[in-house]
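Most newcomers find our protein records easier to grasp once they have seen one. Sequence and backbone structure share a record, each on its own labelled line. Nothing more is needed to start thinking about how sequence determines fold. As an example, a complete record with its sequence and its structure tokens follows.
=====
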Amino acid sequence: MLTVNDLLERVQTLNMLSDAQKSVPITALAALDKAQTGELSFLASPKYRRQLAHTQASVVLVKEVDRATCPTSCVALVVVDPYLAYAHLSHLFDRVPSGTGQVADTAQIDPSATVAAGVTIGAYAVVGQGVVIGAGAQIGAHCFIDDFAVIGAHTRLQARVTLAHRCVLGAHCVIQSGSVIGSNGFGYAPTETGWQAIAQLGRVLIGDRVEIGANCTIDRGAIEDTRIDSDVIIDNLVHIAHNVQIGAGTALAGQVGVAGSTHFGPGCSAGGQAGFTGHIEIAANSHFTGQAMVTKGTTEGGLYSSGLPAQASKDWRKMVARVRQLETTMARLGALEKLIKEPE
């Protein structure tokens, strides 16, 4: 069982605690309004401040300004950033199975593959010719690692991940179930009778500490490599096309789509369902709100938006009706301007 003293090994508090407070037991994490005795919670947003005064949590992560609001029955851990402290401490309660360092009997591993010490390979996984897997990596059940792919040390692939031939994953990455890395890009030349496929000759190169959600697809490059730099986080159901480059520290939310050869600088972010056309340059620290339709690049960082938020249906119908009248309205305005400018 954890105690407050165990938490102090991971986060730095700004207030002094007694020995009795340090020995308070903690069994789980919980939200402020649902926490019970023995549980740890946190206040990251002022809009939940009213819940703090009534929480039943035994320990709460707070800023100094909220310390006095904590009930006397709980231990206040004063930190600079409660949400970041919660992020660090959450791993103490993680129940994700750790690697066993064993290879399942039903796994198929080509004799030419290099598998380092402590690697876990799950049932029915397939590891192809010339594959290199770093120390402590975890390959989930039914994963397919194609020929000459490389997986860095302590990288974890959940069940049913596909890593195509010659693609490279860095160290300490996490790839969630169902994602496909290195699928062919959407490259075709038109012919008189249909389409001629273009061989996709590049790879996908992924840096260290990259996390990719479930059911994502990242296409290999047509000639050059598709590249995801270190410390990028990608949500579920994201599609990244061939030759895209994603700068370090970028975050892409669910259902984002990036067309081919678009380049992101470091530190960017995109909200859910944002779409990026191909062959554009996105400046470092550019941030796009959800459903943004990005057809031109950015030359400097900042916040960018497009699209229409939801509104009452009757108001939306009125607006659409007026949009349809714009052409007629513009013609009438032009005629009026011409009439005004004509001499009497």
